[in-house]
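Run log // design_07
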């Protein structure tokens, strides 16, 4: 499967991780932000490269952080 340059850059950041290799909180490891990041993450999820799970902080649905996990096939 072909990834764009920005998808490759983002995947490399996710593979390095923050909390552990191939995993971490999106806001800690993302090389981009805003709508650009949203589109890249969405594309990587659709391509089966990563999973992304939202977690409400202090049960506040307006304050959600996303845990990113690189799928095994793409993990380093």
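design_07 sequence
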């Amino acid at each position: 499967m072909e990834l764009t340059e920005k998808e490759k850059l983002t995947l490399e950041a996710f593979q390095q991780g923050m909390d552990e290799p191939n995993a971490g909180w999106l806001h800690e490891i993302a090389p981009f932000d805003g709508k650009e990041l949203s589109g890249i993450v969405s594309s990587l999820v659709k391509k089966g490269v990563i999973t992304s799970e939202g977690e409400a902080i202090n049960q506040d649905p307006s304050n959600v952080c996303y845990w990113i996990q690189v799928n095994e096939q793409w993990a380093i």
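The beta strands are 23-25, 50-57, 60-70.
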